[in-house]
Design brief:
Strand content: 15-25%
Number of helices: 10
Strand order of the largest sheet: 1-2-6-3-7-17
Distance between the termini: 20 Å
CATH topology of the largest domain: Aminopeptidase
CATH superfamily of the largest domain: Zn peptidases
Shape: globular
Length: 403
């Protein structure tokens, strides 16, 4: 098995499922197994590395490969460790299978394929006999799929607000990087702008009683029903705003509804989970305030509690041609094309860690092997040839020549 395929297989067979806010536990959850693999790999390679604690059992892992020319900039490479859950998959999620040039398994496409490309590129750069024209800081971040907390913790390292637990990691990335490349399945195109999002829970309260006397209670599901209708109306309106934006229009989605404990009880609580996706330039707070106002119009505010957002990020603006970052992104585009891929600069409707780095003053693009069409699927897979091509492209960015 080639180095890129073997590396990807190593990552896939180490489960790193994000609980996605659920009260679940088990050997497949959280990123610790992937983090330990990375530590062992960097130790064996002689690369300086550090853990950055983000939450219990969830550490960013950071490594650094120095440039060999004086005054070189720092490039940040980011790949998140976590995957979405594996329920409902039609293949064995954590037993990587190679067939017809593809590797199958949970996370193979999103985003362990991109992580494998970056790890192999680091190996190739370390062995490269010519000059390395940039220092690479590789960051394997946690909790991208649900909250971006790993990326936010990483961005803290070059800010003015570090915490004591950041000390080791800050030694590797205390200076703001010149540019960031964030691994996601883009088919080796460059996503230069994408949406942001704000997600939160709404608790709608009523009063419980026996269903034999429903008039004595206050049905929280009925109240929630009026809220749901109002949300649907706003969601329809949003689709007509900025319909021609490259990222698509702003959107609103009601993702989950939970309420009631039995058919013979009048429910006292309903919980909704809301997601408002933002086009670049929209304010998360302004967008959330509009939703809150619609909810208030549909339901007495005394019965409604909006929890703080569990995810909040602005969209990714197109800074790919900004001074300083432009030469590196131009190289990324050029080497992708040299390997026979379009290398287009595009926009996306999804969100990534790139928006967090952009907000922290680091121009960022999203780049990696695989297609978003295979991400999160029941038979998730990635073309191994693209993983290899992504690694070669990343090497070209740093060296100025093909590997």
């Amino acid at each position: 098995m080639s180095s890129h395929a073997a590396t990807l297989a190593d990552l896939v067979r180490r489960p790193s499922v994000n609980p996605m806010g659920r009260d679940v536990s088990g050997p497949e959850y959280l990123e610790a197994r992937v983090g330990e693999y990375l530590v062992q790999r960097f130790t064996a390679a002689g690369l300086p590395w550090a853990r950055q604690p983000v939450a219990p059992g969830r550490d960013n892992v950071i490594a650094r490969l120095e440039a060999t020319v004086p005054g070189a900039p720092v490039l940040l490479w980011d790949a998140h460790q976590d995957t979405v859950p594996a329920e409902g998959m039609t293949i064995e999620p954590f037993a990587p299978l190679v067939r017809d040039g593809r590797l199958y398994g949970r996370g193979a496409c999103d985003v362990k394929g991109g992580m494998a490309a970056m790890l192999v590129a680091l190996d190739r750069l370390a062995a490269f006999e010519g000059p390395r024209e940039a220092t690479v800081v590789f960051a394997a971040t946690v909790n991208e799929e649900f909250g971006f907390t790993g990326a936010k913790a990483l961005a803290r390292l070059w800010s003015d607000a570090p915490v004591a637990s950041d000390a080791a990691a800050r030694g590797l990335v205390s200076v703001r990087p010149t540019a960031a490349i964030v691994a996601e399945p883009t088919g080796l195109d460059l996503v230069a702008q994408h949406k942001g999002a704000v997600r939160w829970r709404v608790r709608i309260r009523g009063r419980a009683c026996h269903s034999a006397f429903p008039e004595r209670g206050d049905n929280a599901i009925y109240r929630a029903g009026r809220v749901i209708i109002a949300l649907e109306s706003l969601a329809t309106e949003l689709l007509a705003r900025h319909p021609n934006h490259p990222c698509g229009p702003p959107t609103l989605n009601l993702g989950t509804v939970r309420g009631g404990s039995g058919v013979n009880l009048v429910p006292e609580l309903t919980v909704l989970e809301i997601e408002r996706r933002l086009i670049p330039g929209e304010s998360p707070q302004t967008a959330r305030d509009e939703v809150i106002a619609r909810v208030a119009a549909a339901c007495d505010e005394a019965h409604v509690e909006h929890e703080p957002p569990f995810l909040e990020s602005a969209g990714l603006p197109d800074d790919s041609r900004s001074v300083g970052a432009k030469p590196w992104f131009d190289r990324l585009e050029s080497y992708a094309r040299a390997l026979g891929h379009p290398g287009h600069r595009t926009a996306a409707r999804y969100g990534t860690n790139a928006s967090i780095y952009a907000a922290a003053g680091v121009p960022a693009v999203v780049f990696g092997p695989g297609s978003i069409e295979q991400a999160h699927t029941a038979d998730e897979w990635i073309e191994l040839a693209q993983v290899d091509a992504a690694a070669d492209t990343l090497v070209g960015v740093v060296t100025g020549r093909s590997a």
